[in-house]
Every structure is written in C-alpha cells, then in structure tokens.
Amino acid sequence: MASPEIASLSWGQMKVKGCSTTYKDCKVWPGGSRTWDWRETGTNHSPGVQPADLEEVVKKGVKTVVIGRGMSEALQVPPSTVDYLKKNGIDVLVLQTEKAVAEYNALAAQGVKVGGVFHSTC
C-alpha cells in the first residue's frame, strides 16, 4: 500500500488525498490516516511528541517517519522520541510542518513506506 498524499495544508486544517475528513493534527501511514488526538497520550507542546504518539504509525511497517512540529515549531520532539524511532530502524525527519508535508509528499511519491504525524497550528 502506498502512503497517501497530503493534499492541502493551512493553519488548523489538513486534507489527505482520498479522505473526506479535514484534520487539525493528523497521523498518516501507508494505506491510511486519522486524527492525531493529543489527549490519547497526554501530549502537550512541551515535552512534545512521545513514542506513544508514534507507535501506531511504526506498527504499519514504515521505513521513515516525518514529524511536523507546527507552523511556528512550537511542538517539541525530545531526543527519547527520536531514539525510539532509530532503535526500530526507522529514519526520522523533524521539520516545520509546511516543510514536513513537502518532504513527506516527496517521499510518498517516490514509493517510500513513509508515515508521519503533523501539527497544523502553532
């Protein structure tokens, strides 16, 4: 299964190709996407993205994970989260969300098994 293209991004809104839902924050992986609800894992801007936020995406067999830190990069990504991905043999890119979406879409277009978590506001 291919990783779905992120069709659009603006402040507080993301759309994934083939999905009718408009997301504020989202998770994507080969063959799917869903809302990224920070309340599920108690995530906040600081300390930021936790391994628990990424487990679902990792279990989909991705080779690369792209993390979008928000338009102003307010969302933190602690070293423990990066280490979690690397220990699972997964490449990780941590970028401002607009750059993260562009990189994710480029990798998806190349057929890479890429997943991601993206924060679309601050």
From TrEMBL:
One of its GO terms (biological process) is positive regulation of fat cell differentiation. InterPro entries: AAMDC, MTH938-like_sf, NDUFAF3/AAMDC. Belongs to the AAMDC family. CDD domains: Mth938. One of its GO terms (cellular component) is cytoplasm. Coiled coil: none annotated. This is Mth938 domain-containing protein. Keywords: Cytoplasm. It is found in: Cytoplasm. The keyword Cytoplasm applies. Pfam families: DUF498.
